[in-house]
Amino acid sequence: MRVLIDTNIIISAAYSKGGIPYQAFKKAVEPPFEGLICEQSLEELRRVCNRKFPDKIHAFEHFISAALPVVEVIPVPSSKHPDEDKINDPDDRPIYRAAVKSGADIILSGDSHFLKSGLNTPKIMKAAEFLALT
User: Fold this and answer.
1) Of 8, 10, 66, 128, which one has the greatest count of Cβ atoms within 10 A?
2) CA dist., res. 86 & res. 82, Å (int)
3) Is the pLDDT of residue 57 over 80?
């Protein structure tokens, strides 16, 4: 099962090892799951961390360095997906597009724009919901 891990989960996992987002991240990158990270998320992570957590850049970089060998980094397709307008935040639409194009089964996210979109494919799940999967 392919799981696209959204930016907010990665940031939370990087700065709170042992928390629910970290546990969900860890589960998403271990069999039977395949962890995916969108190229746009990596760029967004750097921007957010530089702006909000400049004193923790080293911890973030260390986390990403350790994560890259166990995730597949996927590109953002240039053509729009017909359902992406259901996501209110235009910055999240390319991530959805990448998830669909890569065949993701789940988008692991705490982002309200994803969660309130009403989209069902791929399934959008919070970290705690994902952890409850067996």
Assistant:
1) 10
2) 9
3) yes
